[in-house]
User: What shape does this take?
Amino acid sequence: MLGEGILKGLAETAKNFAGSFVSEERLTTVQYPEERIAPFEAARVFPFLVFDQENRDGGGPEWEAGLRCVACQICEKECPPKCIYIEKSKDKKLDYLGKGQYYPARFDIDISVCMSCQICVEVCPFEAIKMDTEFELSTTDRFGALLLDRSQLAKSNEHYHKIHPTDATAVDARLADEKAKVDAKAKAAADAAAAKAAATQPTNEGGD
Amino acid sequence: MSGTELVHDHKMEGWNRPPVIEPDGEAELLEVAMGPHHPSTHGVFRMDVALDGERVIRLKPVFGYLHRNHEKIAEGVSYLASMPYTDRLDYFCSLSNNWAYALAVEKLVGQTVPERAEYLRVILAELTRVQNHASAIGFLIQEMGASGTPLMYAFREREKILDLFESLTGSRMMCNYMRFGGCRMDASAAWLDAARKVVVGLPKFVDEIDNLLSSNEILMARCQGVGILRQDLAINAGISGPMLRATGVNYDLRKVDKYGIYDRFKFRVPLGEVGDIYDRYMVRMLEMRESITILEQALNDIPGGPVMNPTAKLRGFRPKAGEAYGRIESPKGELGFYLISDGTPNPYRYRVRPPSLVNLTVLEDMCLGSNVADVVLIFGSVDIVLGEVDR
Assistant: This one.
């Protein structure tokens, strides 16, 4: 029948028009920026550098002292668009295991080049770089404001816990586990040394 | 020349062009450049059309405006670093692209994939197919003049699928999810439940859009018998995907190659008869239904276990010198990645076989003799993404 398609279409439109007043789940529009949808936990925008508040060695501001990054430059090498620039430090500072490590004297990410692919996060063996969820980064400065340096990239572990709670808890557990292992090993070594010292004591006495 | 037979003869029958329509003696040809900035071109693409009145006499596709040096960049970076670039080929189907590339590298290094990861790949690839076909149909109808409504219906459903992608992979379109030897992270039980919920709602959507459009007089008048692609030409030109199946050729890599675990699922391959726009539209509509049955089976059977092969290396591996070709049935056709390794951490040669580009090569043959208004429609029915055409 001629015109059947038009009638069908109009009926469909009318159904949806009426339905949008009744059904709550059809009201999908959100009045941004007054209303916001919370980002998914897996959401990723640009990377940031994690620092620990309790783990600090050396002077300088808090973020600088607690940076987990050891300037191994793996992320710089693996970054697909090559937007990371790292300069290794000359001296070393103690990390959370009490081991001397280099730190990044310079760590820049050009977020006008970065494509948020998360590969730096995946290849980092030190859990030092993670993805942020902050997306309102527009600026009037085309070049300088989009080249982030260490101080702008550094964010606390608490921030990481806030945006990716599941991942952050797993990472903390893994790091604590590692530290416990190292501590146990150090303790065992200390105990062995003490035992050895104790064992050698009598023979010395006996020798006299 | 005994023993050798020429299989592909250049004088093969049926290879001739459709008859070129000569313009009237007095008439002047009007040359129109449709694009590169034209709402119908899905991006930046130009068609140089020669018109005699309303009829198309010549059509020259001009592409390359979106060339981003994908293949050469991939030869300069490690195997892993090319993965996020594959998202940007066909940005509607990033997970299919991931899979094709992962398949090629897995073939190159001889890596196997755990069960659960295979299931996840199938689920994500089929969700991709549904949302790609839904939006392809939406855009086709939009170009027919139904501005808005069907496209918005398609995008409403696509939004639900993209939400699933985002909650799993962290990004709506640039998913970067698959890795050589598995997937990046596991899907939680909550995610699988959410996916089941979306899949349960999909048949209703397909019914709705089918009921609304398939028997519409305007759609049939504009589509039936327009832009016919002949079967022999489709085969000879290397067309693949819904465009090939619309001409009646039963060729689906999910059935032919049985890559991944597609041999475990029961599904049918919809075929067209005429090879016109309407057949392409119908094939896509029916493929959505078949994808939904695959999704139901996969979400029902998905086993537990790891999603990453523990022997798989993320970075710094050096495949033995050799070559590999991994291909999948992406929503647009056969998507293949051809890699040559010379034993270094970077591929020596990295080549993409993009379905969009190959399917676009027969555009002139489909358009000759038709009206200029139909060119837009025929172009829309090819379903291309310029990111993949130009790379």
User: Anything to note?
Assistant: Chain B has a mean pLDDT of 85. Chain B has two domains: 30-62, 70-390. The radius of gyration of chain B is 22 Å.
